[in-house]
Predict the 3D structure of the following.
Amino acid sequence: MLATVREIQFPQHGDERGKLIALESLTELVPFEVKRVYYIFDTTPGTVRGKHAHKVLKQVLICVSGACTIECEMPDGTKTEHRLDWPDHGLLIEGLVWHNMKEFSKDAVLLVLASEHYDEVDYIRDYDEFRRMCEGHSSDV
Ligand code: T46
């Protein structure tokens, strides 16, 4: 499977009352069927979460309040950092991508749209195993 990390700018429906963003499954903005939504908030200062990759899961991450940084490592070893600090900005992660979430602001709420129900079997939590699985995979950053 191709590993992809892509920042996505969401179009805003704004008027004098404020702003609204609408996301739908199976579109350019969310290129999979959303089966699960979860969010991370009230994060302990200085904490780093994640430290894993997924075998099958596709996700779009959106910091709907505050800010946080997503650190990604692709199968070819390329590393990227993505600061999510506004609700109109998302990060698509699919395929074998080792990812960490860090530098959460106090008010950060990281919303995640996921393509599958929760399944611990889909997680690769051992970094050496991740590197072994990466052999033969390609990256698209
Ligand atoms: C990911 C990053 C971005 C559930 O019971 N259901 C769920 O849907 C999820 C996501 C988690 N959990 C339980 C499993 C653990 O006991 O919540 C606890 C914390 O999960 P975890 O340590 O995996 O959380 P993060 O922040 O390290 O990672 C999460 C997602 O798990 C992961 O898929 O890509 O956010």
